[in-house]
């Protein structure tokens, strides 16, 4: 079985590289064929087969529709900033489509299962960060007419700082992509009982489909669907948990540890550090800021940020209710808490509804991973590779971007393959902190200081900030 699967993987690699060189029409067909080929080589157990088949069909239909819908994205500008024509809702959908994923759903339920209300930190402070983005940073970012935030930093601090900031910011996003891999893999494992490697590769193929299908336009489209899916899934899940528990009061009364009702239940210094990391991380992540760059104008950019600030925090509350409910009734899941939310869906929803929601949750997480991959891809291409290594290759710019996206994803998959497992939100918070120290610090300095000569003299702060953050993170987490 394993040998046949290895041959299947080899065939898929060949198909993918052929795809890089072919037209968009053939590209779309090959991607859909690739995913069907991967699934067809894996034998489904009889028990729950209908749920598994429905899950696969839902993913294939959505992935195929996504590819066909955005096959006309042909230029670098369309791929990276949607021709700077996104509406307020489009901006919001890009932000939500990337920011709200495995950490906000599976990760929140997972952390709530262990620590309770502290799991709200991720979504609550994501919303606060979006509010700050709209109030203070949108005007600066949109008026600069740049594609990457590192470009803006480079315009003030110089080319070396731009590359340094871009590299470290991208490294921070790599870590968050790993978190999405872990979250999506937990769903695949729950639905199919697959092993780690098979689940990981299936997730890899899905993310790749999403990210190359249309760049930032695709991220906005996925984000729109994610908002509907998220609120339907999380609200219905919280309602079922409260109904089964006979209300919120009963849920609170049966909490194993009353300390779980505190935002600081896993440690005050660590919680404050995570709050800080969330705000500065959101304000320094390429994909979220790329949404602002893609807006029609400053006013539209602000409205998009404010809409995101309103929509994100409630999702965390719904996840906390589910997580605490599962802690009360299923303490045996403590050995693998990443499976808590998928197990809840599989247990409390009708198999058909569960399959659709499982597929929807996978789409939510994969959409986040694809948005993050797009951010890294844009940074690496615009800031480092466009006028360097890739300059000599005479192929379309979009193909170069898609090739970088493949390499970015393969690198993230390698980290998962090495077994560097952890709690999903731990990866996410560390990711936010690294991004913030490398990008937010210089961005904040640009916002406050208009004198370019003074900024140049203070560039040493930009160089030292990431080092200082890592030292503080190590001290507070151990």
Q: Looking at this structure, what is the CATH superfamily?
A: Sodium/glucose cotransporter
List segments where confidence is low: pLDDT < 50 over at least 5 consecutive residues.
1-47
Stated plainly, the CATH topology is called Sodium/glucose cotransporter
Helix/strand structural class: mainly alpha
What portion of residues is helical? over 70%
Oligomer: single chain
Level-2 CATH architecture? Up-down Bundle
Main β sheet profile: none
Count of extended strands: 0
Report, as a whole number of angstroms, the end-to-end distance.
43 Å
Strand content: under 5%
Element order: H for helix, E for strand = HHHHHHHHHHHHHHHHHHHHHH
Describe what you observe in this structure.
Pfam families: SSF. One of its GO terms (cellular component) is plasma membrane. It comes from Hippea maritima (strain ATCC 700847 / DSM 10411 / MH2). Keywords: Membrane, Transmembrane, Transmembrane helix, Transport. The protein is mostly helical and 478 residues long. The protein has a single domain, classed as Sodium/glucose cotransporter, CATH 1.20.1730.10. Helices cover 78% and strands 0% of the residues. It has 22 helices and no strands. α2 runs antiparallel to α10, α9 runs antiparallel to α20 and α20 runs antiparallel to α22. The chain is globular. The N terminus is likely disordered.
């Amino acid at each position: 079985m394993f040998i046949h699967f290895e041959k299947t993987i080899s065939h898929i690699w060949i198909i993918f590289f052929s795809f890089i060189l072919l037209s968009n029409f053939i590209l779309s067909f090959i991607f859909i064929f690739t995913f069907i080929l991967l699934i067809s080589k894996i034998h489904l157990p009889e028990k729950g087969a209908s749920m598994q088949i429905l899950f696969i069909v839902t993913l294939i239909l959505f992935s195929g529709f996504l590819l066909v819908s955005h096959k006309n994205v042909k230029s670098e500008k369309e791929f990276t900033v949607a021709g700077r024509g996104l509406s307020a809702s489009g901006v919001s959908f890009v932000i939500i489509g990337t920011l709200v994923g495995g950490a906000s759903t599976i990760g929140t339920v997972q952390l709530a299962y262990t620590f309770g209300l502290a799991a709200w930190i991720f979504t609550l402070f994501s919303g606060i960060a979006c509010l700050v983005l709209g109030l203070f940073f949108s005007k600066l970012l949109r008026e600069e007419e740049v594609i990457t935030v590192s470009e803006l930093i480079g315009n003030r601090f110089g080319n070396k700082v731009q590359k340094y900031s871009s590299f470290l910011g991208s490294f921070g996003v790599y870590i968050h992509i790993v978190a999405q891999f872990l979250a999506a893999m937990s769903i695949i494992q729950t639905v199919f009982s697959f092993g780690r490697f098979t689940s990981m590769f299936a997730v890899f193929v899905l993310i790749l489909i999403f990210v190359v299908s249309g760049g930032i336009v695709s991220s906005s489209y996925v984000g729109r669907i994610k908002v509907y899916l998220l609120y339907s899934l999380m609200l219905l899940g919280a309602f079922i948990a409260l109904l089964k528990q006979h209300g919120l009061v009963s849920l609170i009364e049966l909490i194993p540890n009353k300390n779980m009702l505190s935002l600081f239940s896993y440690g005050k210094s660590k919680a404050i550090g995570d709050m800080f990391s969330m705000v500065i991380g959101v304000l320094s992540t390429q994909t979220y800021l790329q949404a602002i760059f893609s807006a029609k104008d400053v006013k539209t950019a602000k409205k998009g940020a404010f809409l995101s600030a309103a929509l994100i925090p409630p999702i965390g509350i719904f996840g906390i209710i589910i997580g605490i409910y599962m802690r009360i009734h299923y303490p045996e899941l403590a050995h693998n808490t990443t499976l808590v939310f998928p197990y809840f869906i599989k247990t409390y929803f009708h198999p058909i509804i569960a399959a659709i929601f499982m597929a929807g949750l996978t789409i939510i997480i994969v959409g986040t991973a694809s948005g993050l991959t797009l951010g890294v891809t844009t940074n690496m291409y615009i800031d480092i590779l466009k006028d360097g290594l890739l300059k000599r290759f005479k192929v379309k710019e979009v193909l170069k971007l898609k090739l970088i996206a493949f390499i970015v994803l393969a690198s993230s998959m390698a980290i998962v393959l090495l077994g560097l497992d952890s709690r999903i939100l731990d990866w996410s918070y560390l990711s936010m902190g690294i991004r913030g120290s490398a990008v937010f610090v210089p961005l904040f300095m640009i916002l406050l200081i208009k004198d370019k000569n003074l900024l140049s003299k203070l560039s040493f702060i930009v160089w030292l900030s990431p080092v200082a953050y890592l030292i503080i993170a190590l001290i507070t987490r151990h």
